[in-house]
Write a structure and sequence with these properties.
The chain folds into two domains: 63 residues, no CATH class; 122 residues, no CATH class. The chain is globular and about 30 Å long. By secondary structure, it is mostly beta strands. It contains two helices and ten strands, in the order αβββββαβββββ. The strands form four sheets. The protein has a three-stranded antiparallel β-sheet, with no helix packed on it.
Length: 191
């Protein structure tokens, strides 16, 4: 089978469907009408199997694709945590440090668990449409990072969205996606 993701970002296939039908792995074209005249049982089985793995027509990635990761600080030597099974724990003090920990909480008292670093992570966590949102205290200290609705992640009440600067609309609640140097150093935040 051709590598659908070669040369592209995960989820963006490089193969395309032909107007006459979908090409299978041998380059043959299956009829677009779903198996009209001349379609064999083998052709139908190929089409069914291909839709179970990857629907080439709309570029949908299979459910069993690579797990999402969140950047546990985008500084040199940063570690990626597995979204859903780990959190990135921010520890403060004189300097800020980050470490991946299993589960949904941090083992160190006072550490802030970061379960996401962009909207796509919230979707992977089952919060489709929510923003990865950080909350700060009146002194600017990060007190929480969680998935919130766009309305609830309001920049005027001490909340800002975390973002992916490569996304089409990285800051749907407003602002520009910029690398944070003070609020959450190493992460991209909507300012």
């Amino acid at each position: 089978m051709a590598d659908l993701f070669a040369g592209g970002k995960t989820g963006q296939p490089t193969d395309a469907a032909t107007p006459e039908g979908d090409a299978d792995s041998d380059g043959d074209v299956a009829p677009a009408d779903g198996g009209g005249d001349g379609a064999t049982t083998t052709d139908a089985a190929r089409r069914e199997a291909s839709t179970l793995d990857v629907d080439v027509r709309d570029g949908a990635a299979p459910d069993s694709g690579p797990p999402r990761t969140l950047n546990c600080s985008s500084v040199p030597g940063a570690v990626d945590c597995s979204v859903g099974s780990q959190v990135c724990c921010k520890q403060g003090g004189a300097t800020t440090s980050y470490a991946c920990e299993n589960g949904t909480t941090c083992s160190t008292s006072g550490a802030v668990p970061i379960p996401c670093d962009d909207t796509a992570d919230c979707a992977a966590l089952g919060h489709v449409g929510d923003l990865c949102c950080l909350t700060t205290s009146s002194t600017g200290r990060v007190t929480e990072v969680t998935c919130r609705s766009q309305v609830d992640c309001d920049m005027n009440v001490g909340r800002r969205g975390l973002c992916d600067p490569r996304a089409t609309d990285p800051c749907p609640a407003g602002g520009s996606c910029k690398l944070s140097t003070v609020t959450l150093p190493g992460f991209y935040v909507c300012f």
